[in-house]
Specification:
By secondary structure, the protein is mostly beta strands. The protein has two domains: 482 residues, Methylamine Dehydrogenase, Chain H; 112 residues, Cupredoxins -  blue copper proteins (Immunoglobulin-like, Sandwich). 9% of the residues lie in helices and 42% in strands. It is built from ten helices and 45 strands. Strands 9, 10, 12, 13, 14, 18 and 19 form a seven-stranded mixed beta sheet that branches. Strands 36, 37, 38, 40 and 43 form a five-stranded mixed beta sheet that branches. A five-stranded mixed beta sheet has the order 39-45-44-41-42, with no helix packed on it. Strand 6 and strand 7 form a beta hairpin. The radius of gyration is 27 Å and the shape is globular. It starts with 10 loop residues before the first helix and ends with a strand. Bound molecules: sulfanyl-(tricuprio-$l^{4}-sulfanyl)copper. The site of sulfanyl-(tricuprio-$l^{4}-sulfanyl)copper (K7E) has 11 residues, from strand 27 and strand 31.
Amino acid sequence: MKKWVPAASGLLAGFLAATVFFADLSPAQRSEASNDTNKSNAEKVYVPFGEKDEYYLFASGGHSGQMFIYGVPSMRHIRTVPVFSKDSATGYGWDTHSKEMLGDYTWGDLHHPAFSEKDGDYDGKYMFATDVGNSRAALMNLETFTVKDIINVPNTSGPHCAAFVTSNTEYMFLPTRFAVPIGREYASLDEYSEKYRGVMSAVTFDDKKEKLNIAYQVALPPWSYDLSDAGKKVSADWAVMTTYNTEEATTNLEINASQADRDYIVLFNWKELEKMIKDGQYDEVTGQKMIFPEKHKGGIYLVPVAKSPHGVDVTPDGKRFIASGKLAPAMTVFSFEKAFEAIKKEDFAGERNGIPVLKYESVMEKEVNPENALGPLHTQFDEKGMAYTTMFISSEIVKWDPNTGETLDRVPVQYSPGHSVAAEGDTVDPDGKYLIALNKIAKDSYLSVGPSHPESMQLIDLSGKKMEVIQSSPVNPEPHYAQMIKADKIKTISVYPKDENNPDAVYSQDQTKIVRKGNEVHVYGIAMRSKFIFDAKVERPDQIEVNEGDKVVIHLTNIDFDQDITHGFAINGYDLNIEVQPGQTNTIEFTADKAGTFPIYCTNFCSALHQEMTGYFLVKPKK
Ligand code: K7E
C-alpha cells in the first residue's frame, strides 16, 4: 500500500477524490488476508438450498425508499420490502391502507433502519425507519415484514440519522439534516440565524395499535444534525448526535461549512426532556410540544468535536461515544462518565445559542489516528467490544481497541465504504462473526451494466486472526446503514389468522356479495386457487359491473390458508394492482372513470391454472 499522508488542506480534495486512492488493487491484493480456519471462502458462505442463513440483513434502500432483506452469510437477496415508495410487485401504494400511508408522496430516501430493542438488545419485533427525502417515519411489523404506519414529521426537513431507538424502545429520535423555519414558512436566507431551526423529534409508538406518534420536539439551532446513537446501560438515559455547519453557512456548504476547527456533538438526557414536557416546560407550536433550549433550560449539552463530524457511535458497554470526522483523520473517543461529571460540576466552557458547552479536554478521552487511515465515517463493534471503523477515503475497515486506541487490523474494501454493519453490532451484546462493508463504489466488481454501477456489499469474516473478505454482493441503490439480526429472533407468521370481527372479510363463497349504495359499489369477494368470486349468487361470479363514475370499493380475502399462496388482483387497463397474502383481506378503492371492458387477472402466479384466474370488470358508459 502506498504511503500517502496528505496535508490537512488537502483532506477535502482527498475526500472528493476518494475513489481514486485504491482503484488499482489486484485481485490477489484483495484477498491477501487469510485466517487460520480450514474452510475455503466458498465453504464459509455456502448455504445449501433449503437451509437457512444465520442472520437477516436489513439494508436501507436509500433513495429507492425501500428496505432490502438479505441472508448472511450467503448474501442472497431475499426480499425488498416497500416502505416509502410505491411497489407494484406487492401492490404497495395501491391498496387503501398503503395508499393512505404514502399520501401524496411518490418516493422516499431511507437511510437508517433500527430494530426495536429490549434492554439494549434487538427483540426482533419491529423495524423503524425514516425518510430523509420527505420527512417521514415508518413502522414495520416483523411478523409479516409489512409497514403498519407512516407519519409525516412536521417542522423538520430531512430526518437523517434516525432511526435510532433507546434501549427499551421508549423513543425513536429524529434529528434533522436541514434547517428550515419552523412550520416551513417562507423566510429569506438572510434571516437564517434568527428564523431557521434544526428541529429534533421524539417519536413513540403504540404496539397494540401499531401507530407512531410524535411525543415532543426540540428547536435546536440552525445547524445540520447528522448521525446519532442512543446510550446504553450506564448511559441509557442519554443520546448523542453529531452536528456540522455550526458556521450557519447558507450557501456553498462544501467550503463554508468546513471553516471552524470544531463543530459539536449534542448530548442530551431524554429522561430529563421527558420530565420537562411533563412539567410544561415547552411552547405549543404548530400543534407540537416544542422545547426551545434557550428558554426551557436543561437536558441538552454541547461537546466540541473535530470539524464536520459524521458518525457517532456508543460502545456496547455504554461508557464511551466515538465520533468520526469526514475531514479529520482522527476518531475521537469521549467518555460519558467524564461528561456526567463535568455536567454535575457545571464545568462549562460557555454556551452557544443558550446551550451549555462542555470543555473538549474534560470529555475527550483520546484521539485515535491509525496511520494513513483517512475519512473515518462509522463504527461498529464485536463481542469483545473492539471497534471497526469505515474509512471512506482510504477504502478500508480498521479494527481498533477503544480501550487503548491501538490499531489491531485493517482490510481493504472496494471501494469507499459508508457504513459497515456487524452482527448485532450496535447492541449491548454484539455477536462478532461477520461484518459487512456497505461500499459506495463498485466500479470493476461486477459485470458492467453501463456507466452507473450497483453499490457493493462485502462480507468480512471476523472469526479468524485477521479480517477476511469472503463474499460480495451487488445491491440496488443505496444502502446507507443496515442492521444484522440473528435469524431465530424473528418470528414470522405463515398465514394471516382469520379475523371474524373484520367487516370487510369474507371467508366462504356464500358470504360473497356486491352491494350498491347510491353511486358506490362495494364488493366483498374472495380469491382462491384458481378463481375470483365476487358474488357467488349470480350467473358469472367473477364479474363486476358498475356504471361510469361510480366509486368502487373492492374487499378481497385470500381464503387459501396455505403458506406462500399469494394472489394478486389487477384490472387490465385501469393501472391498478394489489396483493392478498394467504388469509389476508385487502381493500382497493377507485373511481370507475373509464367506460369499457377490462379483464381482471391474478398477478401472483398461484397454481397450474393461474392463467384461468381471471374475470371481467365492466363499466357501463354514461348516457
Ligand atoms: Cu453515513 Cu445517511 Cu448514515 Cu450515508 S449516512 S453513509
